[in-house]
Each structure stands twice: as structure tokens, then as C-alpha cells.
Write a structure and sequence with these properties.
Layout (H helix, E strand, L loop, with lengths): L1 H10 L1 H4 L7 H4 L1 H11 L4 H6 L2 H33 L3 H11 L7 H11 L15 H16 L1 H6 L1 H4 L8 H42 L3 H34 L5 H16 L8 H10 L6 H16 L9 H17 L3 H16 L5 H21 L8 H28 L1 H8 L4 H17 L2 H10 L8 H15 L13 H13 L3 H16 L5 H13 L3 H14 L9 H11 L2 H6 L2 H11 L12 H18 L8 H21 L3 H17 L11 H45 L5 H20 L1 H24 L6 H9 L8 H17 L1 H17 L5 H17 L1 H4 L3 H6 L6 H16 L9 H6 L6 H15 L5 H15 L4 H12 L5 H13 L7 H12 L5 H9 L1 H4 L6 H17 L5 H73 L8 H19 L1
Helix pairs in contact: 1-6, 4-6, 6-7, 6-8, 6-9, 7-9, 9-12, 12-13, 12-14, 14-16, 15-16, 15-20, 16-22, 17-20, 18-19, 21-22, 21-23, 22-23, 22-24, 25-27, 25-28, 26-28, 27-28, 27-29, 28-31, 29-31, 29-32, 31-33, 32-33, 32-34, 33-34, 33-35, 34-35, 35-37, 35-39, 38-39, 39-40, 39-41, 41-44, 44-46, ...
């Protein structure tokens, strides 16, 4: 009814009002009712119920008809509604679309003008920049820009001042509105271009008709159109500049909004070509942002830039580099004649100049090429170009295109470190976006995608299932599925096999473990077609070199998830021929042998059955594995050959202990074969041994000892499982149905037997006896009384190397590793030879970092197995953190991290050494130390809190640089979050002030106190213990830290503690001033004392000089007195001089004598 009334008043306005002057109270009545209806239109259903659409039409009709008298009233009411209700932004924006656009949308304009007048100074930072009214008004700007971008663009000058306002919601809304304008502005530009084309066509027809009078007018119109186009281009450029500036906004929400807008523009192909490079650089820079949301949108923007790049196709840089070289060569050979003459003249002059350098010649060539390119571009719009000039210009354009593409690629390549940092982020969103980016980059052929994809495979071991699934999805999309098919369409089988071979071909050991995990999951899910493995078997049999080994390695990885791939007589025969056959022996292909041995470890242990084909082929395979383990194919003159053999021999021995029915006998055969090869037979013994043969023997000796220990434990577990199965079977048979009297009698007998066994504890005793026998075997038999014990004295002699007879690094590495493995077997053997191992570690040459690194890793294993025996040597392990070698330090920290986190080593005062690793030169060591402290901080017993006082004390005594000490303590103190811990730590730190011997130590303590969270109890403690640290307040650094504590306390203090804080502040200032005066007085006194001491020393020295001169004068005066006495006898008229004159003469002599001495 009210809508009809408003429409009627609009239609019959001239009839209703005298002299067409309406009654505002009457015509505004529908609007008032509409306002009330809109207040309750909070959703779709509520909007229908409250007739929201009709309410909007009522207001629009009134504004269209009575804008001259009611516009200000309506605008004020709508602004008030926007301030009050958060759902009004969409409704008011829709209302602006219902108002007539001729000559302009006056309602939208007035609303924007009112928003531009908003006072934002009342929105303080305490409210997060979101005052309730402005938070509701801000969405209206972006909503209006989405439906009426021209109106917002025309009035954008009213909104831009708010970019400096404090409410971030207002800044974000303006950024979003700019995005809407730029997206729609491209459409308008196309319309304008169409109008220009039509106008030029009409002008051409008029020219044909000879209408010369209208040509001038059309020329003016064209010039106006060109000016408008220039203004429009400048406006768009300014808006893009604003967007780019807002990516560095102080608030993360606005930064994220700006990057999201740039992403939308990229996806909708609205990003100009000249903005692609700057926007890419901005997105890469924002990957370092501290906010997850900004980093996520930045990765999405980079992905969109890749997918919508103007160089569509493969982004491999090598073709572009070759193309640039080719084009530059062509352009240099076709330079215009005048430029060519100038270039030749400059080159000739430079060559004749003695000071001319090659760099100057290159600069001349580059300048000539740049001049030729500039000349060609100047002639670009000319219609009279020769064929040569046109071709030259085409080559210039191609060069610019290739150079731009290469610059675009290099931006991504240079940001590879940032991309990989995203993979290591603790936030799953960062990891997910980085993985998706690498998938897209791999599809476009970016080189950084290969390294990034390999690095991402390590995330297969993540604790979060979502990250594991995302890594697996990325693995499928990159190596298994068609690009862009999201894993639904697989690549051809040949391509999948080739991808796997390329992947494992250049992978490291850690990457191979991750690849194996990913392949295993794909095999279990049956995603990889069986034909792929048939192709791999064919490659392993027919290919040569590295490809053969890679194919065998992929097969072994897949067999870890599905043993059927290799566990059959036919496949074992293929493995024997391909991995251990004549080709492997002839070419000494240790990589293929190693891969074949890895595949054999997925095969079940063979049962002795001479009639079984599988047993026969496994027996043949075992013989070949023995030959590999003995090193029968090795060259004794080639150290590189032996180094490659080590990995193959290790896996061969592992395979023997997996498939052989009696591996201990095979192991003895291997050892005796090595003995015969090194020392000869009893009939023909050898007096000397080849160092490489001896290295191979020690390696096999240690590894067999370790595998025998594992084999013994496996047998023990099998016995326990068999006993458990027997017990379960008895219980099942006892609980089953019995139908005859015999069954009842047997049941009674079994129950009676079980009761007797339970009473006597026979079962438990048998299990304990089994464990005792296993312990006896591992402790005494393997390295104590077995075959291995025959060679341990020789091993110990080589490791000790007391006479220095063994100089081969390979031999020392192999012998030391064998000793460590033997020590892992027996506790007594370990305890006996630990001093030898640490002496070798201490005496190892500085350049032999491999030996020290291996010993450190072995010590970690020994500490895990025998912690009580290794515990006294723990400080020596910590000392390796100060080793000069980065590798040794990294291995040591890794070992200590595992031991500490598994509670195998107690965290004591030596943890200070780990704290120093926080400032190590190697980033990997720093990150590992941070990880250790992060994990320690999660424990309930608060180890970091308990260790901090000792860490502070030890670090302050090491004489570290102030910035290093404070960076370490800032990191460690960030883990102290509980109030009680802050209070106790504050008290402990204050108690250490009297024990400090230097002012810099007190300054360090004051800095640590300043990093703590201060509460009322802390203030009271500082006030009560003031006398302990007041003597240090004269130091500016100490005073500054305590004053920062006071400022912290003021922010979080309660009303009753303000007096205490003020008292503390007054005492600090008073004692600081007094202490400073005392220090000045002490310095002045010390300077006066030094001057006095200097004067005393000088006086003493002068007196010594005077004493010497007076002795000489006394002798002279005695001679003079004798002469004078003789003279008196001659003449009584001669008188002696007065005392004063004599004194003056003596002093004159003494002064002259001092001058001579001086």
C-alpha cells in the first residue's frame, strides 16, 4: 500500500501540491516506514518477510521525484542506518542501483560524500581500528563499486584521504573498491575503443563525400578523445600504484586485501603487461610477511601469475637464453650503416688506447646495439619501411619478448629460497599453498619446481595427515597424472616409469627415503599401473649404467609395500640376472648390486627345500651376495671403487640375514674369505696387507657383528611369539566344545598341567631363561668368544695406531666404524674401549672431519644403548659443538638433540654449549638448536626455566659480544610464560648481582630482567631487593633496562601498586644520579692518585740522581778544601765563600748534572 502511495505521489505530484510545492511530512512518510522495514531485513527470509524489496522501491521512487527537497534527509537517514546495522551495506548499494542515473546517480554521490566526511580520529588502536559504525559503513564502498564502478571512480577523490585513516576496515574497503573499478574499467575501455573505430569509419565516409567543414570538428573531437584516453590511463596507473602501496600497509588485513585484489585482477586478465613484473616482485617479497593470511594470498597470486603469464607455454630459461643469444647476434650483424660506422670508430679508438679494456669494448658493443634498437622503435609507426627494416624491427620485438620472459623466469628462480622456506613453515596453510605452487611450476617447466618438489617429499614424515595427503597429491600430479587433470587421468606407462627414473637418479639418501614412502603408499592404493613395473623390469635387464641401477632401485622401493613385485621364482630369476649377474660383475656396477640387495630384503626367509625353485634361486643369489660382501670383484688399486663397494656390501649383508636360513654360517664364510684374501693361507702367508683390503675386511667385520646382534634379538622375539601362540591355542582348545568323555579327561589333564605350571611359574621362568640366553649371547658370544673375537685385537691395534703405521684415511674410517659397531654389541666391550674411542676423537687431524663426524654419530648410538657407561663422557661430546668443522658441529647437535629429547642424556649445565649454537654461522645448526629449545619448552617439568640461571651465569663469563648474548637470552626468555616462573626467575637473577665481578655482567642481568613479564609481585621483589643492584645503577645500560621494567609495570599495574612503582622509579633515578656522581668522584680521585704516584716516583728518581751528583761534588769539595788550605798557608788574605754562595754553586752543578743525565 505504501509503495502504491509513493508511486501515486510521484505520478500526480502536480495535482497534489499547490504550485508543485510538496509537503515534506507527507512525502517522507513512505520513506520512514521503509527505514523501519529495512532494519529487520537481516537475511533473505527476513527480507521477504519484511518486504525489503518494496521498501527499497519506495525510497528510490521518492528520491527520483523529490530529490531537490528530500535528498539530504534521505542521505542522513541512510548513513545513520549504515552506522547502526551491519546488514544495510548491501541494501543501500542495491538502492543506489534503483535510482535514476540521469544526469548522475545523485544518491550514491551524496552517500560517498558523507562517507568522505567521516571523522575517524576517534577510532583508537585499542579497538583494533574497528569502531562499530565505521565497521558497518566500510562494506558499502566495496558493494557500491561492484554494481556502480563508474560512480565510485568519479568520486574516488572523496575516499582516498581515508587511506591514511586508522580504521583498517575502511582502508580495506577502498582497496576492494579499486579492484572492482579496475576490473570493470577494461570493459569500458573496450567500449570506448569501439566508439573510436565507429567514429573513424564515419569520418572516412565523410572525407570521401568531400565534407571539409566537418573535418576540423572531428579533429577536435579526436584530440579530446585522446586527452580523455591519456587521463584515463593515468588514472588507472594511479589506482594500480595505490594497490601496490597498500601491499605494505601497516595492518595485515589491508595487505591481504590488496594482494587478493591483485590476484583477482590477474585471474580476470585485467592486469596490464607492464605491471606483471612489479606485481610478481611484490608477491615474492610478501612471502616474508609475518602473517599467515598475507603469505597464503601471496602464494595464490604467484600461482595465478604463472597460469596467466603472457609468455604462455614452457618457462624453461634455457630456450629463452639461446633465443636471446641468437637474436643479439643477428641484430649486431645488421646494425644500420651510420651506427655501424660510429661503433667501428669507437672500437678502433679504444683498441688504440693503451688503457682500453675488454669491458669498455663490450660497453661500446652494447651501446651500439641499444642505439640500433632505439632507432628501429622510432621508425615503428612509419608506413614506409623497407623489408630489411621490417625484419630488423620484428627481431627487436622478439628480443624484447624473450628478455621479458627470461626476467620473469629469473624472478621465480631467485625466490627459490623463499618458496622452500614456505615448505618448512609450521603453518599447514603455508605448506599447502607452496605445494600447489610447485605443482603448477612443474607443469610450466620452471627449474625451481624440481628442487622444490624433491624438498617437499620430506613432508611425507609430517605429523599432520592433511600435509601428508597434500604431498602425496602433489606427487601424483607431478609424476603420475596428466597436468591439470587433478590426478584423474594418468600419464602413459612409459612416461611414468621415466619420471620415476629421473626422480631417483639425482636424489640424496634422505630424499630416497621420502620417495620410497610416497611410492609405497601409491602401490598400496593401486594407483600405479602394473605395466609400469613390467617396463622397469625390462629396463633393469636391458639398460646399462645408471639407468639400470635406478630401475632396480625403484623396483625395490615398490617392493617395500608389495613384496609380490619381487617375491616369486620368476622375478627372483630376473633379479639375479639383472642385479647380480655377469653384467654387474664385469662392470663392477655396485649401485645396481646395492639396489638388487635392497629389493631382496623384501623377500621372505627361504625354507630349506631342495625341490623348491624359489629355494634354489635364493641359494644362487646368496652365493652372489657372498661374492659381493667378500669384495671379490673389487680393484685393490682403486680407492674410489672400494668407496662405492661399501654401500653394496652393507646391503648385501643385510639381504643375506634376510633370506638365508642360516645367516651366521654365511657370515663366517665371508669373514674367512676376507682372512684368506688378506693374510693368505697357512702354507703361503702374507707378510703385508693391502690397506684397501683391510678396510673392506674391517667394514664387513663390524657390520656382521651388528647384524648378528639383531638376528639374535629377532630369534628371541620369534621364540616369545611362538610361546604366546601356544598359550593362545591352549586357551582356544580349552574354551571349545567337547563332545566325548576323552575330551573331558584331556581337558582336565590340561587344566591340571596349566595349574601346576602357573603355581611353579614355569612359563615365566622359561621366558626369563630365553632372555638371559639372548643377553649372554650378545654380551659374550658375538665379540667375546666367537669368530669375531679373533680379529678384535688387530682391530684395536689399527684404531689406536700408536706407532703411526696406518696412514690410510679409508682404513682408519673403516676400522673406527667397525670398533663402534662392536661396542654396540657388548656392554663390557663398550665400557672397556670407550677411552680409546675418545682418544681417537681428540687426536683426529683437523682436516679429517669424516672421522670425527662418524665417531660423534656412533657415540650417540652407544649412549642410546648403554647410557650409564657413556654418561661420564658427556662433557666431551658437548665439546664437539665447538669443533671447527661445520659438519662435526651439525652431527653433534643432531645427536645431542635426539638424546635429550628421548631422555637418554640429562640436561645439565652443558646446555650452555647448545645455547651458543643459536648464533652459529651455519643456518641449519641455528635452526636445529631452536627446534631443540622449542621441544623442551613443551615439557611439563619446565627444563628451560630450571636451566636459565646457569645459562645466564656461564654465558656472561664467556666474554661474548653484547649483541650475541642478548639475542640468545631474548630467544630463551621468550619461553618463560607462567607468572610464577617469571617471579622466581626475577628473584634468582637479582640475587646474582652481588656475585658479578664486572659492570657488563650486571648489565646483562638487567637486560634479562627487562625481558620478563612484570606483575605486581615482581615490582614488590624489585623494591625489596633494591640494595642488591643499586650500586650498578650508575651504568647507563643498567638504568635503561630497569626503567623499561618500570614502564612495563605501569602499563599492567593495579591501582594499589602505583605508589610502589613510583617509589621504585624515584629510587632508581636518585641512586643513578648519586652513583654517577660517586663514579665521577672515584675517577677523579683515581686520576689524582695516579698523578700523585707519578709525582712521588718522579721525585724519588730526582733524589736518586741528586744523590749521585752530590757524591761526586763531595769528592771535588775535599780536593778544593785541601787546595784552599794550602792557599791559606800561603796567604791569609784569601777568605772562604759564604754558605749561600756555596749552596748556589752546588745547586747549579746539580742542575747541570741533571741536565746532562736527562
Amino acid at each position: 500500500a505504501m509503495l502504491t502511495a509513493s508511486q501515486s505521489m510521484s505520478t500526480f505530484a502536480s495535482r497534489l501540491w499547490k504550485r508543485s510545492v510538496p509537503d515534506e511530512a507527507v512525502i517522507h512518510l513512505p520513506c520512514r516506514i521503509a527505514y523501519q522495514m529495512l532494519e529487520s531485513a537481516t537475511g533473505v527470509i527476513a527480507r521477504k518477510a519484511s518486504c525489503g524489496d518494496e521498501a527499497l522501491k519506495m525510497i528510490a521512487t521518492t528520491v527520483d521525484t523529490y530529490a531537490s527537497c528530500l535528498l539530504n534527509t534521505v542521505v542522513a537517514a541512510l548513513v545513520d542506518l549504515l552506522h547502526t546495522y551491519d546488514h544495510m551495506a548491501v541494501l543501500v548499494a542495491e538502492l543506489c542501483t534503483l535510482v535514476k542515473e540521469t544526469p548522475s546517480n545523485i544518491l550514491a554521490t551524496e552517500l560517498l560524500r558523507e562517507i568522505g566526511r567521516l571523522d575517524t580520529e576517534g577510532c583508537h588502536t585499542e579497538t583494533g581500528g574497528k569502531a562499530s559504525g565505521i565497521k558497518n559503513v566500510a562494506p558499502f564502498i566495496s558493494e557500491l563499486a561492484a554494481v556502480r564502478p563508474k560512480v565510485v571512480l568519479a568520486n574516488i577523490s572523496l575516499l582516498l584521504p581515508h587511506l591514511d585513516a586508522e580504521p583498517y576496515v575502511l582502508r580495506s574497503a577502498i582497496v576492494n573498491s579499486i579492484g572492482c573499478i579496475l576490473v570493470r574499467d577494461d570493459v569500458f575501455a573496450e567500449d570506448n575503443n569501439n566508439k573510436k573505430v565507429a567514429a573513424s569509419a564515419a569520418q572516412a565516409e565523410k572525407d570521401k563525400d568531400g565534407d571539409s567543414s566537418s573535418s576540423d570538428d572531428n579533429g577536435e573531437q579526436e584530440s579530446k578523445g585522446e586527452r580523455k584516453a591519456v587521463v584515463k590511463a593515468n588514472t588507472r596507473a594511479s589506482l594500480f600504484d595505490i594497490l601496490c602501496d597498500r601491499t605494505c600497509d601497516i595492518t595485515s588485513f589491508t595487505r591481504a586485501a590488496a594482494i587478493k585484489v591483485l590476484n583477482d585482477l590477474t585471474e580476470k586478465s585485467s592486469l596490464p603487461l607492464d605491471r606483471i613484473m612489479p606485481v610478481t616482485a611484490i608477491a615474492i617479497d610478501r612471502l616474508q610477511d609475518k602473517t599467515v593470511m598475507v603469505r597464503r594470498y601471496s602464494m595464490q597470486l604467484l600461482t595465478s601469475l604463472l597460469e596467466n603469464n603472457p609468455f604462455m607455454g614452457m618457462l624453461n630459461p634455457e630456450p629463452y637464453r639461446d633465443k636471446i643469444t641468437e637474436l643479439e647476434a643477428y641484430l649486431k650483424s645488421n646494425v644500420p650503416e651510420e651506427i655501424l660506422k660510429a661503433r667501428d670508430a669507437a672500437l678502433e679508438e679504444t683498441k688504440n688506447d693503451e688503457d682500453g679494456t675488454m669491458r669498455e669494448l663490450q660497453e661500446i658493443e652494447s651501446a651500439a646495439l641499444a642505439a640500433a634498437i632505439a632507432d628501429a622503435e622510432a621508425k615503428r609507426e612509419s608506413e614506409e619501411l623497407s623489408e630489411a627494416e621490417s625484419q630488423f624491427l620484428a627481431k627487436v620485438r622478439a628480443l624484447k619478448f624473450a628478455s621479458s620472459a627470461l626476467s620473469f623466469i629469473e624472478l621465480f628462480e631467485n625466490a627459490n629460497a623463499s618458496f622452500q622456506t614456505m615448505l618448512l613453515s609450521s603453518n599447514s596453510s603455508d605448506v599447502t599453498e607452496a605445494l600447489r605452487f610447485f605443482v603448477r611450476a612443474k607443469n610450466f617447466g620452471l627449474p625451481c619446481a624440481v628442487t622444490g618438489t624433491k624438498r617437499s617429499l620430506a613432508l611425507m614424515w609430517s605429523n599432520e595427515v592433511s600435509i601428508q595427503d597434500e604431498v602425496l597429491r602433489a606427487f601424483i600430479e607431478v609424476f603420475v597424472a596428466e597436468p591439470g587433470s587433478e590426478g584423474k587421468e594418468l600419464l602413459p606407462e612409459n612416461q611414468i616409469a621415466q619420471n620415476f627414473l629421473d626422480l631417483v637418479g639425482e636424489a640424496t639418501v634422505s630424499e630416497l627415503a621420502s620417495i620410497e614412502e610416497a611410492l609405497g603408499r601409491l602401490v598400496k592404493k593401486e594407483i600405479i599401473p602394473p605395466e609400469v613395473f613390467s617396463i622397469l623390469w625390462q629396463m633393469a635387464s636391458q639398460a646399462e649404467g645408471k639407468l639400470r641401477a635406478s630401475a632396480m632401485l625403484v623396483i625395490s622401493m615398490a617392493a617395500s609395500a608389495d613384496p609380490k613385485i619381487v617375491d616369486s621364482a620368476y622375478r627372483l630369476q630376473n633379479l639375479y640376472d639383472a642385479g647380480l649377474g655377469d653384467y654387474t660383475e664385469e662392470h663392477r656396477d655396485w649401485k645396481t648390486a646395492r639396489s638388487a640387495a635392497c629389493a631382496l630384503q623384501r623377500v621372505a626367509r627361504a625354507k630349506v627345500d631342495p625341490s623348491s625353485a624359489k629355494y634354489i634361486i635364493l641359494d644362487l643369489i646368496t652365493e652372489r651376495l657372498v661374492a659381493v660382501a667378500r669384495g671379490d670383484w673389487c680393484q685393490d688399486e682403486s680407492e674410489a671403487d672400494t668407496n662405492e663397494w661399501f654401500c653394496a656390501a652393507e646391503q648385501a649383508i643385510n639381504a643375506i640375514f634376510t633370506i638365508s636360513p642360516s645367516p651366521e654360517k654365511v657370515a663366517i664364510e665371508i669373514l674367512l674369505g676376507h682372512q684368506a684374501g688378506i693374510f693368505g693361507s697357512p702354507e703361503n702367508p702374507c707378510n703385508s696387507a693391502n690397506s684397501l683390503r683391510l678396510s673392506r675386511f674391517f667394514f664387513v667385520l663390524g657390520h656382521i657383528a651388528l647384524k648378528l646382534l639383531i638376528y639374535t634379538e629377532v630369534l628371541s622375539s620369534s621364540v616369545r611369539r611362538a610361546n604366546a601362540a601356544k598359550t593362545v591355542k591352549k586357551q582356544e582348545s580349552a574354551s571349545g566344545p567337547k563332545s566325548s568323555e576323552d575330551d573331558a579327561e584331556s581337558k582336565e589333564d590340561d587344566e591340571e598341567e596349566d595349574a601346576i605350571e602357573a603355581e611353579l611359574g614355569i612359563a615365566a621362568q622359561a621366558e626369563a631363561e630365553t632372555e638371559r640366553k639372548v643377553a649372554e649371547i650378545s654380551e659374550n658370544e658375538i665379540v667375546g668368544r666367537g669368530v669375531i673375537s679373533l680379529f678384535t685385537p688387530m682391530l684395536l691395534r689399527v684404531v689406536a695406531n700408536e706407532e703411526g703405521n696406518y696412514s690410510s684415511p679409508t682404513l682408519m674410517l673403516s676400522a673406527t666404524l667397525a670398533l663402534c659397531k662392536c661396542m654396540c654389541v657388548s656392554k663390557s666391550f663398550c665400557e672397556k674401549h670407550l677411552p680409546l674411542l675418545f682418544s681417537v676423537l681428540a687426536k683426529a687431524p683437523n682436516d679429517d672431519q669424516d672421522l670425527r663426524a662418524n665417531i660423534v654419530v656412533a657415540l650417540g648410538d652407544l649412549a642410546f644403548r648403554f647410557p650409564n657407561e657413556v654418561e661420564p663422557y658427556t662433557p666431551k661430546i658437548y665439546a664437539c659443538l665447538r669443533d671447527k668443522s661445520t659438519r662435526v658441529r651439525r652431527h653433534t647437535l643432531m645427536v645431542l638433540t635426539h638424546l635429550i629429547l628421548n631422555d637418554m642424556v640429562k640436561v645439565k649445565g652443558q646446555v650452555c654449549e647448545i645455547a651458543l649454537c643459536l648464533q652459529d654461522q651455519e643456518s641449519g645448526i641455528r635452526d636445529m638448536a631452536r627446534l631443540l629449545f622449542h621441544e623442551l619448552s613443551k615439557r611439563t617439568n619446565s627444563p628451560i626455566y630450571n636451566l636459565l640461571p646457569d645459562i645466564v651465569s656461564q654465558l656472561s663469563q664467556l666474554g661474548l659480544k653484547q649483541e650475541i648474548f642478548r639475542e640468545i637470552m631474548m630467544f630463551l626468555l621468550s619461553f618463560i610464560k607462567k607468572e610464577r616462573q617469571n617471579e622466581m626467575l626475577l628473584e634468582k637473577l637479582i640475587q646474582r648481582f652481588p656475585k658479578c665481578t664486572a659492570i657488563n655482567q650486571k648489565a646483562d642481568l638487567a637486560y634479562c630482567i627487562a625481558q620478563l613479564k612484570i606483575n605486581d609481585k615482581c615490582v614488590k621483589c624489585l623494591n625489596d631487593t633494591f640494595k642488591l643492584y643499586k650500586d650498578a645503577l650508575f651504568d647507563e645500560d643498567v638504568l635503561k633496562n630497569f626503567m623499561s621494567v618500570v614502564s612495563k609495570a605501569k602499563k599492567n599495574s593495579k591501582l594499589e601498586t602505583k605508589d610502589t612503582i613510583q617509589e621504585l622509579e624515584d629510587k632508581l633515578n636518585e641512586n643513578a644520579a648519586a652513583g654517577l656522581e660517586n663514579v665521577k668522584a672515584n675517577k677523579k680521585a683515581q686520576r689524582a692518585k695516579a698523578r700523585a704516584a707519578k709525582r712521588v716516583a718522579h721525585k724519588k728518581k730526582v733524589q736518586e740522581w741528586e744523590g749521585e751528583s752530590e757524591g761526586e761534588e763531595d769528592k771535588q769539595s775535599e780536593a778544593e778544601m785541601e787546595d784552599e788550605a794550602d792557599e791559606e798557608n800561603v796567604s791569609d788574605n784569601i777568605q772562604l765563600p759564604a754558605d749561600g754562595e756555596g749552596t748556589k754553586r752546588r745547586s747549579g752543578r746539580s742542575s747541570r748534572s741533571r741536565a746532562v743525565v736527562a
